[in-house]
Write a sequence for this structure.
């Protein structure tokens, strides 16, 4: 990975993280515990790949970048809530996330449920309230609808149900649909959100959606590869859980080598989709980074 | 309770329930289980007091009533999600709700967490998508912001945290704040939601907010009274849990007789606030009904 893209990712991550407090809800002191739990998980680090994607798309489309910071935060809040709930004992029962105790381990199960609920609810408020710009009313409503779709029953929540109930003989079709919903939909909306906010034309929305879908699948293939090949230190969580749980993954279906080929093709296809946009270099570099990442 | 208000409540409840399928999300067949769990809890009956309040306020304000059906559903979906999550083993651990097994008992804990998450997420989509009316863009965004506030960290979710962590010596001030957040905020927004949607003036919003706050507290005082006096058959759930758990309630603080007086004063104050509106009779009758209800 080139130093240039490393610097770019770091710069955008910092730009995003430094803006969080401008939009994050102010919480009354009686609910300090709730605020602590929400912030614990939201500020637990991570690559901030979703906000960075939104910012990179906004830059490529020549939108005022500071106006996509609230939606970037909303997306990251929804992503964070999903991790908190997925880690719960009745779900994936994970004790570690990014090398730290998961929310229910650091606080309690009930606090974790409520911290997740709070992050999800407040995410929609962030978009409704920010940026304060009367010209964006229609774009904000479209965005809220699309974000709820991506994170809701036909998106992330539905994907989680598919994952939980996956049939052993589901095959590739089931796996792909599952991932499109569980992780792909939120990655895709990270790319398209700025376009909805600024009411872009259908053609741009379609192109960037396809780009997002490729990146979303790529993300999952790489996740499956890393679960097979990486260490706890790399991942900040226990690797090898998938094969132990006999989960349907790219590895279990195709093996390691073929999975890498699939990932390479996804990167190439994604870059191809956007290569005609001026200034698409950073976004292309992010696609390559997602393939090369080690955690 | 007069036959007239009984008929009115039944008529509006049916009007609301018959509209649910017009706005409830269509869910892809792979997530049938999720849809089943969401519908199981949403359609478990109940008084539909929140949708009926929204409809009654819309009638009093002379708004087109069919246009408040989507927001009524959104509010009921959020209310339902909160019941599902509150009933979880790590929260209140309730096995019955409205005489039926709770969601996690009828399905599973993980399905119940996700059904709640799905209802909450899709509620915001319902408002963003319906009614399809370009004149309501600004009203919808204000409504989304206010609904997220009422159900979020400074509202319902925060109230739940306060309830979970209430100090034994919290006293009346803590109790009132807790209830304003936990149940009051959602009752209040049920009353004010139509006004936000139709961009009512500040004075009307303030008056109806105050009415909603009185009704919200009334609702809680009556809940506390019923927990002390009603039977399982009346409530559809186990009564007497509050005193068994030594919870801070109106009963534990003031005793039964004084709690009834407080409730009567809340009804009188609420009716007084709206008596100058033409056609406020039905809304006043609902306030009285909430006091007289037995479940």
């Amino acid at each position: 990975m080139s130093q240039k893209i490393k610097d770019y990712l770091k710069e955008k991550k910092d730009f995003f993280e430094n803006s969080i407090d401008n939009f994050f809800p102010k919480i009354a002191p009686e609910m300090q515990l709730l605020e602590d739990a929400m912030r614990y998980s939201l500020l637990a680090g991570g690559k901030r790949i979703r906000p960075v994607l939104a910012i990179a798309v906004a830059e490529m489309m020549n939108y005022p970048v500071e106006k996509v910071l609230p939606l970037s935060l909303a997306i990251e809040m929804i992503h964070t809530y999903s991790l908190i709930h997925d880690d719960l004992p009745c779900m994936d029962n994970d004790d570690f996330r990014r090398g730290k105790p998961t929310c229910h381990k650091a606080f309690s199960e009930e606090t974790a449920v409520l911290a997740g609920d709070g992050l999800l609810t407040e995410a929609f408020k962030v978009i409704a309230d920010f940026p304060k710009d009367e010209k964006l009313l229609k774009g904000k409503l479209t965005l809220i609808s699309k974000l709820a779709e991506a994170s809701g029953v036909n998106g992330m929540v539905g994907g989680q149900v598919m994952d939980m109930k996956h049939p052993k003989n589901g095959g590739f079709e089931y796996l792909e649909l599952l991932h499109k919903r569980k992780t792909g939909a939120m990655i895709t909306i990270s790319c398209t959100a700025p376009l909805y906010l600024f009411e872009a034309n259908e053609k741009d929305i379609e192109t960037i959606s396809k780009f997002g879908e490729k990146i979303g699948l790529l993300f999952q293939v790489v996740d499956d590869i890393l679960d097979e090949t990486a260490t706890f230190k790399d991942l900040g969580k226990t690797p090898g859980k998938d094969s132990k749980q006999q989960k349907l993954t790219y590895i279990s279906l195709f093996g390691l080598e073929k999975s890498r080929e699939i990932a390479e093709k996804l990167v190439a296809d994604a870059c191809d989709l956007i290569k005609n946009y001026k200034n698409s270099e950073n976004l292309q570099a992010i696609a390559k980074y997602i393939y090369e990442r080690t955690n």
